[in-house]
């Protein structure tokens, strides 16, 4: 049973390798891993020892992954543009019509695409719980480590958790760049842009980040280009948006939860807000999953719009209760229009296609 | 262990040596015959007396690098498609991939062994009969 679980986990680990490396070696690697597990199963050791050995085997694969990934990356680069296995998905021409249209994202990729929403919600939920409990400790300046003057201060976790989410987002975005900007990676792009904007504007618990707030995002992009030894990821990003404009909508959709927290939860925590944040987080993550699992353009757009509409109808409870009815309706419509704006790209593309097909 | 007439070509690029220990053992296991991935994995462990235990990822990362460098090449065994019984159920139903040293690979291995022998000879000379 453990062997089966580890084999499945290993299959997921393999998906993280560069596509062309996977095309070349993925099948063999899965076979060798299974054979090694089978060898342990047949070793005649006591069950507990066998299980421990199996777990250690898998752990070794996980720990070796970063170094192996670099080897795999170098191998892929060494192939150049001459060899392109049929199932390769990275940075090659002609892949566009093959994967943009009618492609259903796997459940794993859909979960990865929903993860930034869950992480963001979790970080702010912890902030809310901490603030509600009045569990304040000494605050500190993240840049120079000095304690902030004047009690009480928010605990360090409030300061560091959203930053940790930002860092996770840019790291996964980097991975997305290396994988050729798959659909799920656009949520990470949106979330990273939000964090860059948020931290670069104003003072955050005594710390002024300024333009430095954009550093992680730009570092990830530059590192992605360096690891690819090519500028191709950038045209690929625009190519993705051109061929499937809903990707840009997905990027803009990533702002929804942060906007939600700013408008509804900003520094004003109560039990209702905590439940509300859980609901909003799950709702927007579910919208992302439905978006990623949808095959058609309209299915994708409607999944995001529906989630956002429900968020405004249910989520902005305080706004409705305070009698801000019309401002809330205006804000809802404005943001929905904002989400639909990339549709202009779809119209443009349709026009260009009509002209060029004559 | 090695044939005395093993060709040593001065054209082996300097950046290929010294070899990392896992890479050296991989090449050593391929010295006599071509092998598939699992056999290499087990033979490296046996040859190094359990000191070098490769993960599948490390093995294939190294194989990919050696393929790209032209040190090894890949071949397929057409006759392995039937007959054998494997619990994983997959590899025996397809053509098994084998790895073997190229002529260049033999040269790289020979250069590395020569380098190590030189170091060993120097150490023996310096330490004399007393050893460590």
What would your notes on this structure say?
- The complex is a heterodimer of chains A (358) and B (132).
- Chain A is 72% helix and 0% strand.
- With 358 residues, chain A is an all-alpha fold.
- The radius of gyration of chain A is 23 Å and the shape is globular.
- Mean pLDDT of chain A is 78; it is low at 81-101.
- Chain B has 132 residues and is mostly helical.
- In chain B, α1 crosses α2 (37-47).
- The chains are: A mainly alpha (358), B mainly alpha (132).
- Chain A binds chain B through residues 10, 21, 24-25, 27-36, 38-39, 57, 60-61, 63-65, 67-68, 70-72, 74-75, 78-79, and chain B through 36-38, 41-42, 53, 55-65, 67-68, 86-88, 90-91, 94, 97.
Taken in chain order, the helices and strands of chain B follow as HHHEEH
Which protein chains make the most extensive interface, counting residues with beta carbons within 8 Å of the other chain's beta carbons? A-B, 31 and 26 residues
Specify the number of helices of chain A.
16
The averaged pLDDT of chain B comes out at 78
Spatial strand arrangement across the major sheet of chain B:
1-2
In percent, how much strand structure appears in the residues of chain B?
5-15%
Question: What is the averaged pLDDT score of chain A?
Answer: 78
Principal-axis shape of chain B: globular
Cα-based radius of gyration of chain B, to the nearest Å? 17 Å
The residue fraction in helices of chain A comes out at over 70%
Give me the number of helical elements of chain B. 4
Order of helices and strands of chain A: HHHHHHHHHHHHHHHH
Q: What is the overall shape of chain A? A: globular
Structural class category of chain B: mainly alpha
Please describe the biggest sheet of chain B, giving its number of strands, its sense, and whether it closes into a barrel: 2 strands, antiparallel
Fraction of residues in H or I helices of chain B: 40-55%
Return residue spans of chain A where pLDDT drops below 50 for at least 5 consecutive residues.
81-101
Give me the count of strands of chain B: 2
Termini separation of chain A (Å)? 59 Å
